């Protein structure tokens, strides 16, 4: 079966909503039934999706299709398929971005925005759920441990005539979950971005040898292209916008200050240090001055200050006077 020419791939570009929805359902069912798909197969699917999206017309159709391919499709994938599917997306976007003309560029930028948003939403939700479960498990484990201690104490009291003997804690007690493990999936996703579109480098200084057909089909050695800069700039522009949608909540303590843009605060436990790491690497390691400047502007966003992630920069006294224009000298 040629995945790129399959009917549901072509029908995704239909102007009829019912046809598109049916095509998304067919694609989801196909991906759910093929849990052993390799990256090479997913790249074939994304090549078909890329050109299907290329030929979609009318802004409303394009936006609806972009949301269907992201917010509808990604959360419904099997867990083990999500990261490979996202990797195939970023490989395809990075590889074919230069082929886009000016008229079609905006809709692909919107598709990229949707994928940044759904990725944040998916991994933050999973990490938060994992953190809550580990917390509950730790509490339950501690309660069970205390109960066993009490039972052992009562038994010792009966045997020793009321005197309790001290015993070492059982070596079979639950191993504590290391702090940060709940965000392992998010970190793996960010690692992939840092090795690809958000890499500080614009090329691989140690390129691997050309892959054989067998290695291509295996998919293990296929890397995400580094860049291009157009995607880097776009990601930095939308990074905090998409984070704000899923990582913040209304700040009731500041409600009413500004009705047009109500204050928000970070949800508890959001790993902002991890989420900002790719941008910080661009600022400190990119050889491109423009990239470093754009990264610095992103990290200086006022929202990071209002969320308590960063402190406002202190302006040195007299700096304003030095920057003032003194007119044209004679």
UniProtKB/TrEMBL annotation:
GO terms for cellular component: nucleus; preribosome, small subunit precursor. InterPro entries: RRP1. Residues 249-261, 318-330 have a biased composition (Acidic residues). It holds the Pfam family Nop52. The keyword rRNA processing applies. Keywords: Nucleus, rRNA processing. GO terms for biological process: rRNA processing. Its main location: nucleus. It is found in: Nucleus. Residues 307-317 have a biased composition (Basic and acidic residues). Residues 128-177, 247-272, 307-330 are annotated as: Disordered. Belongs to the RRP1 family. This is Ribosomal RNA processing protein.
